[in-house]
Amino acid sequence: MSDLALFGEGNSLVSSDLFKSLQEADDNLSGGGGGGGSNRISLRGGRFREMVSGEQVNVKSDGVLEVIVVNAAKLSRTFYSGAYDPENPAPPACWSPDTQAPAKEVPADTRQASRCMDCPQNIKGSGQGESRACRFNQRIAVLLPGKLDTVYQLQLPATSIFGEAKDGKMGMQAYAKYLRAHKTPSIAVVTHMYFDENSDTPKLFFKPSRPLTEEELQQAVSMKDSDDAIKAITLTVSQTDKVSVKRDGPVADDEIDLDAVPEPTKVAKKKEVAVPSAAEVDLSSIVDDWDD
Q: Whole domain around residue 207: which residue ranges?
């Protein structure tokens, strides 16, 4: 991988209309812009678990997984009224697909407010410790290299989304902004995901592994707006990994685990550092810096 370069100016894809349109699709990942599928990647237990129709078919024991991000929902929020009970998991009491207002499907008797900004569950200290009781999360649609005809849903907890890059470790928003600075859409690279070994709750970091080949990119693009990809990024409360509850439907146990993830703290903005162009950057050197 020493001679592997992030998409350079010599690559005809970089200046194409296709590339520009794909970059626009990264707005949701980087924090801007405006029932999931049966295939999912679960983060339960600090391991990447491949789930098909609620059944675990594969588990990655080394805590790393490479994917291609083909689509992403806006940030969403979920609020659970009680503590997580693994013997009797329950769906959220209130949820929002865009962090602005509760979904229209939220029952009137469990709706917490008409607007998320006015919600008592969005106040610091309403959750555990100084956290907020209503949690951020984000759904993305991913492909696995070598299985480009199958879409998987992955739900990111708040700790995997926010935060500035530190010691070369990037959450999703920082990673997406980094790729944007290099004029590279996330769908055009294989993304290396790995768990933060120092976190008590599931927390992921992201970095680019390699560019897709032209053939791989065309396959990935063909899956971007497929029915499975759209389902994967659609917020529902009816998924399950072999759990059963009453109300409107069951919810996946690793979704409920998000309730234990602390709310990210806001930090003061730092002066932006100029990022070199893609043509000036060698991917192997970037990866080496991040791994230090």
A: 17-276
